[in-house]
């Protein structure tokens, strides 16, 4: 890291620490600000972080220079993982499908991925419960990947850290850890009063500041959420201190290098807005620039680019750029890191994965229209949109809907000056990359699981979205298919699309009675716990095994068929009066769960899994037999 302007930088850093202390003083109960240990940790934070920057024993990655990989093959580490995982799951797969292990050839084992949706703590708990149900069925040990969006990312991260890859331990942790809001005085008191908590929770923010990257509210949000979720509570078996190992994403590879566990994939998206991102920072568009000019009107509409995070690499297939996970947060120029700071804290990354507040207004408008009662409210939203269209014009509507009310976290852009100068306009000329909650685009992480090089055969889509009862998934999966090159066929016919009134508003489903019976719930939802979709490639490669076709937005197109098992979170007869997506305490922005509420949601989710596990096994067996038949035919 450059020492240019070190004195001036230190002055600003001192101001940062003063501001941080003032913030904590306002946020934390008066007693804690006088806690001698916390005060001492705060006073030494500057020194602690500076020592971490040069401590190669603690942070060996500071000795390494990172280089971007410029292709869409899988990393060497992931390829090694796949080989180890197939060998590891062979026996478990034979047991799951009910045959002798001698009948299972490794090449025939389907590559199965679980995908958890967004939906705050509701999705975090429900995805964990679905995976626990799959474990009881014997299927979890057959999974190769686990991917998440937003709240599911938080649950997956806890599984690989504080829960030590134990479903029962994660369930117990939820029961004891979620009864306080992460931002409450009590919660922050609990976190910061534990040994070394100040450096673990706030150190990542400090390193980011030292790297001259602006800190936003989303960074602080991530630090607070993560400190809360990764803090053991007295009921846990591992003590009450934060574990430094949990704050590095790359440490999760200890569970995957030998194939013991599926590979976790976390997600975020970048909002590509041509009118904002075209120019080099030295030549930005000016405020009030003419959005009717050709350089704007001839641009493609805005879209979301998917980024994935796993213990090995972080990157985006549309950009064909992948960096070692330990290098995220570094500055890059022409595909080489220009500083050697330690790996970014998992707390900042968890803040990005669950950063729905930093999304564009258009996503919120869509959520409003899907979830609020139809009629007057919807008419008012449409009226507001029509007024904007009338007074601002089409380009104004686009700019308004793509405005971000909360600033996304700043991070150095790894593809900055990707090519030798001059670089083409766009992201390659932006020194920062702003990543946000992937649920802004699609609430299931189908995109990274459709990576052509992964050759995934089956996706289990655990959907805990608040709108699962509105049949909105079919439209989302169709939109995904158009972009990624799939045509989706639903077995048993296409699911019903939402009915529409003559004025264009959606017809609401019948309201569930106040006290529904188990019979009523089964009659209404019994046929909807699982839907099987066959995804067929629309634009396969010209030759078998050839390079993927590149579609709109530089999106690699699907190369092989995939079976998608869509499993929505619905009411269940085991607790007929509980709606797991609409009950008051399961709201997406509720961050406090009582133990009995955790159990209510967990038990209903596991009951839903039991309703569909037979169809899941049938689909898995079918794919296995097809792969076996194809292999034998090639002999």
TrEMBL record:
GO terms for cellular component: cytosol. Gene3D superfamilies: Cytosolic phospholipase A2 catalytic domain (3.40.1090.10). The keyword Hydrolase applies. Residues 485-511 are annotated as: Disordered. InterPro entries: Acyl_Trfase/lysoPLipase, LysoPLipase_cat_dom. GO terms for molecular function: phosphatidylcholine lysophospholipase activity; phospholipase A2 activity. Its EC number is 3.1.1.5. The lineage of its organism: Eukaryota, Fungi, Fungi incertae sedis, Mucoromycota, Mucoromycotina. This is Lysophospholipase. Belongs to the lysophospholipase family.
């Amino acid at each position: 890291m450059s020492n240019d302007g070190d004195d001036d930088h230190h002055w600003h850093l001192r101001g940062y620490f003063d501001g941080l202390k003032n913030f904590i003083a306002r946020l934390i109960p008066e007693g804690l600000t006088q806690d001698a240990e916390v005060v001492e940790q705060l006073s030494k934070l500057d020194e602690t972080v500076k020592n971490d920057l040069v401590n190669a024993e603690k942070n060996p990655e500071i000795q390494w220079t990172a280089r971007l990989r410029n292709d869409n093959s899988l990393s060497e580490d992931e390829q090694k993982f796949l080989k180890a995982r197939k060998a590891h799951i062979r026996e478990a797969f034979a047991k799951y499908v009910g045959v002798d292990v001698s009948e299972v050839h490794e090449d025939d084992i389907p590559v199965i991925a679980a995908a958890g949706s967004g939906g705050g703590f509701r999705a975090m708990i429900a995805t964990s419960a679905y995976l626990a149900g799959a474990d009881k069925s014997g299927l979890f040990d057959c999974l190769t990947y686990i991917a998440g969006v937003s709240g599911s990312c938080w649950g997956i991260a806890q599984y690989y850290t504080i829960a030590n890859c134990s479903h029962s331990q994660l369930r117990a942790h939820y029961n004891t850890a979620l009864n306080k809001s992460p931002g409450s005085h009590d919660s922050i008191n609990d976190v910061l009063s534990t040994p070394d908590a100040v450096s673990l929770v706030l150190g990542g923010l400090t390193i980011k500041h030292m790297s001259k990257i602006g800190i936003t509210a989303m960074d602080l949000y991530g630090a607070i959420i993560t400190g809360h979720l990764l803090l053991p509570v007295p009921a846990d078996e591992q003590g009450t201190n934060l574990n430094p190992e949990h704050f590095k994403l790359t440490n999760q590879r200890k569970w995957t290098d030998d194939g013991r566990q599926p590979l976790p994939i976390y997600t975020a998206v970048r909002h590509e807005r041509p009118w904002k991102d075209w120019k080099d920072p030295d030549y930005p568009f000016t405020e009030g620039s003419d959005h009717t000019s050709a350089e704007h009107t001839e641009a493609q509409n805005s879209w979301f680019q998917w980024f994935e995070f796993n213990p090995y690499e972080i990157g985006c297939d549309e950009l064909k750029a992948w960096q070692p996970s330990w290098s995220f947060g570094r500055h890059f120029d022409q595909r080489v890191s220009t500083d050697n700071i330690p790996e970014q804290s998992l707390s900042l990354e968890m803040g990005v994965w669950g950063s729905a507040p930093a999304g564009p207004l258009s996503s919120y408008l869509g959520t409003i229209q899907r979830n609020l009662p139809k009629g007057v409210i919807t008419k008012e939203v449409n009226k507001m949109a029509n007024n904007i269209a009338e007074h601002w014009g089409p380009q104004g509507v686009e700019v308004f809907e793509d405005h971000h009310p909360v600033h996304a976290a700043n991070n150095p852009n790894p593809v900055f000056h990707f090519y030798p100068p001059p670089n083409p306009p766009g992201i390659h000329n932006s020194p920062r990359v702003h990543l946000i909650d992937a649920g802004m685009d699609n609430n299931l992480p189908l995109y990274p699981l459709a990576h052509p090089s992964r050759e995934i055969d089956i996706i289990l889509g655990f959907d805990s979205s608040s709108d699962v009862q509105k049949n909105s998934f079919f439209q989302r999966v169709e939109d995904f298919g158009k972009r990624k090159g799939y045509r989706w066929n639903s077995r048993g016919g296409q699911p019903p699309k939402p009915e529409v009134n003559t004025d264009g508003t959606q017809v609401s489903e019948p309201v569930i009675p106040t006290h529904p019976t188990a019979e009523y719930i089964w009659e209404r939802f019994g046929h909807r716990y699982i839907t099987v979709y066959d995804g067929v490639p629309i634009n396969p490669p010209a030759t078998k095994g050839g390079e993927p076709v590149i579609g709109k937005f530089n999106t690699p197109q699907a190369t092989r068929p995939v079976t998608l098992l869509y499993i929505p979170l619905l009411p269940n007869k085991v607790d007929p009066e509980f709606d797991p997506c609409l009950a008051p305490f399961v709201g997406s922005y509720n961050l406090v769960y009582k133990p009995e509420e955790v159990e209510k949601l967990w038990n209903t989710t596991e009951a839903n899994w039991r309703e569909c596990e037979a169809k899941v096994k049938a689909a898995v067996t079918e794919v296995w037999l097809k792969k076996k038949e194809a292999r034998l035919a090639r002999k």
